[in-house]
TrEMBL record:
PANTHER family, A to Z: 2-HYDROXYMUCONATE TAUTOMERASE, TAUTOMERASE-RELATED
Biased segments, Basic and acidic residues type: 81-114, 121-136
One Pfam family of this chain: Tautomerase
Name of this protein: 4-oxalocrotonate tautomerase family enzyme
Keyword field: Isomerase
Region ranges (Disordered): 81-145
Active-site residues, record numbering mapped to chain: 2
Native source organism of the sequence: Succiniclasticum ruminis DSM 9236
InterPro entries recorded: 4-OT, 4-OT-like_dom, Tautomerase/MIF_sf
An example Gene Ontology molecular-function term: isomerase activity
SUPFAM superfamilies in UniProt: Tautomerase/MIF
Length: 145
C-alpha cells in the first residue's frame, strides 16, 4: 500500500478544501503513474511550524528576515539611484537651457556684427561712389578745358 506524506508550512493558512484537493490530487497521481488501487493509497498532510524547519543550516524565519532586509535595501538603493538620475536629468536640462541661451546670444551678436559690417560696406560703397563721381566731374572739367 503506497503511503504519501505531504509537508506544508503552517504560515499558509491552508484551508480544509485545499487539503482535500491535495489528497485527491496525490491519490490520482499515484494511481495514474503506479497503477495502484486508490482504495489502498494513503495520503497524510503534516503542517510544520515556521521555526521547525530550515534551509542550508539556517532557520526559515531567519532566511525570510534576511530576504526582507535585502529587499528593503535594494528598494532603498533603487530609490537613491532614481533620485540621482532625476538630479542628473535636471542638471542636464539646465545645461541645455544655458547652452541654448548662449547660442541665442551668439546668434544675436553675429546678426549685429553682420548688420554693422553691411552698414560699413554700404558707407564704403557710398564713399567710393562719391569719390568716383568726384573723379568723373574732375575728368569732365579737365576735358572741357
Amino acid at each position: 500500500m503506497p503511503y504519501v506524506n505531504i509537508k506544508i508550512t503552517r504560515e499558509g493558512n491552508v484551508t480544509p478544501e485545499q487539503k482535500r484537493q491535495l489528497i485527491e490530487g496525490a491519490t490520482k497521481l499515484l494511481a495514474d503513474v503506479l497503477h495502484k488501487n486508490t482504495k489502498t493509497l494513503v495520503v497524510t498532510i503534516d503542517e510544520v511550524d515556521m521555526d521547525n524547519w530550515g534551509i542550508g543550516g539556517v532557520p526559515v524565519t531567519e532566511l525570510r528576515k534576511i530576504a526582507k532586509e535585502k529587499a528593503a535595501a535594494e528598494a532603498k538603493a533603487a530609490e537613491a539611484a532614481a533620485k540621482e538620475e532625476a538630479k542628473a536629468k535636471k542638471k542636464a536640462e539646465k545645461e541645455m537651457a544655458k547652452a541654448a541661451k548662449a547660442e541665442e546670444k551668439a546668434k544675436k551678436e553675429a546678426e549685429k556684427a553682420a548688420a554693422k559690417a553691411a552698414e560699413a560696406a554700404a558707407k564704403e560703397e557710398a564713399k567710393a561712389k562719391k569719390a568716383e563721381e568726384k573723379a568723373a566731374k574732375k575728368e569732365k572739367k579737365s576735358k572741357k578745358k
